[in-house]
Amino acid sequence: xxHDLYIEFDYAIKGASATIINxxxxxxxxxxxxxxxxRSQMGLGADxxxxxxxxxYNVLIRCGLSYxxxxxxxxxxxxxxTTGIMAHSIxxxxxxxxxxxxxxxxxxxxxxxxxxx
Length: 117
What we know:
- About 25% of the residues lie in helices and about 30% in strands.
- It has about 120 residues and is an alpha+beta fold.
- It has one domain (about 5-100).
- It has a 5-stranded mixed β-sheet with strand order 4-3-1-2-5, covered by helices on one side.
- The model has no long low-confidence stretch (mean pLDDT about 85).
């Protein structure tokens, strides 16, 4: 089944911040999309599984618009914890640097070539 929309992010407990790893959703729509996903997860009942204790959780959300299907996976070990992480991430985004931006900030980057003359 194809997934038309997706977002993958890490949520760090320390600092309570979410960093987007990969998405095809326009930045200005991420909070609205995530709000709808959280709303769809509410009322599903408690998850009795033991939650994993981590410093950083990873969440992947995929949505197939043709079938109105949302798939949520995480390394939290518990669906209720995953829903809480998604809810707390709304408005707390940090966008990860692209590879080019990361390289430009690194010590390896020496800048553009100097003009001749």
